[in-house]
Amino acid sequence: MAKKLKLEADISTEEKIKAAATTVFMQKGYAATRTRDIAEAAEINLALLNYYFRSKEKLFEIVMLEKVQKLFGLIIPIVTDETMDLEKKIELITANYIDMLVENQDLPIFVLSEIKNHPEKFANRIQAGSLLSNSSFVKQLHEKVPHVNPIQFLMSVIGMIIFPFVGKPIFQTATGADSTMFNGMMEERKKLIPIWVKAMMAAS
Amino acid sequence: MAKKLKLEADISTEEKIKAAATTVFMQKGYAATRTRDIAEAAEINLALLNYYFRSKEKLFEIVMLEKVQKLFGLIIPIVTDETMDLEKKIELITANYIDMLVENQDLPIFVLSEIKNHPEKFANRIQAGSLLSNSSFVKQLHEKVPHVNPIQFLMSVIGMIIFPFVGKPIFQTATGADSTMFNGMMEERKKLIPIWVKAMMAAS
DNA sequence: AATTATTTTAATCATTTGATTAAAATATTT
DNA sequence: AAATATTTTAATCAAATGATTAAAATAATT
Predict the structure, then answer these.
(1) Verdict on whether the full-model pTM lies above 0.90
(2) Which end of chain A is more exposed for a tag (fewer CB within 10 A), N or C?
(3) 3-state SS string over A179-201?
């Protein structure tokens, strides 16, 4: 066997396990994942997983927090920006989200489903909620359309962006679209959704 | 113990197990569900579950097919209707879906997540796809807005309707809304979404 | 009422699974 | 090079889990 410098080995082994855990957890969900699946994917002995991460649950929490961050972190700096105008924010949220989701298509269903299965652990810990509610984005929406609850728009925009990825198994078989076609449609949505949202605001 | 007529016992016990299985599967998902959880919820001996349904997987398939039917069955008769006009269809789909989802809030995340976890078993078996693609609803969309892929509208409408329920754990903590407030917002969406979709079509 | 068929139970299996332990291998420090 | 610390492995545990079996209880039929 080849010699390994300590630090390199440390990072490499630990990261290898975490990367494998990320892959397997995202694909199968927490409950259906066996620690042996992760060990096999990481090409390490099962005991090493517990040596580095103590338990399946602890390892999962690390993966999960990273994915929650990835799913919700994107939107916070945009909606809280005090200088950008409303329409620009909508364009940016749409484009950034779709770009990220095209590269991480399993992310939304994984995160939303695991939050639902472990609400006591994650639901409260996500303060994206209060950040959003008090954001300048919500204020701008309220100024533009005072008689509609801004959350109604927020749900719709996020829904239009995220839902195609959540419902992909359906739409895919529904339309016989391959991945290239699906991604092409998502690309098209970066233009469509901002146009639509502006029309929605004007109509309300 | 009270006497039981054979047929009554049959239906009652079998239905009791199926009802309990539905509850537990919907709440925890397939992988996290233990057959003992179901037996306990149904107040029956564990062996009875296997006596009536052979295996956890067979029982799950029965529950799952019913739920898939519930989630997708609603939309088919409307979108395939050859006489109803486009705007009426949008109103009806929205109202019917929201009414049903308010009563079955866990349905979308359960079905979509399980389909994702067992694609080989369910994804292809759902022919809602081809029905949709060739529906008069899609034709009507294409006539009204020829230069936009009708599936783009479909994804948006379904997304606006379903996503609030999928993302409920987020929006709930996000807004501090209780269930009554959430349901009230869903009620409001029955009016908002058709207005919005009409505006979207006019703007495209 | 006696016999047969159906339903239910208690006990138990064989696997799977998360985790631990003690020893071996490797790296680091002295 | 010797001593010490860290990393990795093989073997194993205890608990959980899906499923089965044989017997008991109940219902239906003759």
Answers:
(1) yes
(2) N
(3) HHHHHHHHHHHHHHHHHHHHHHH
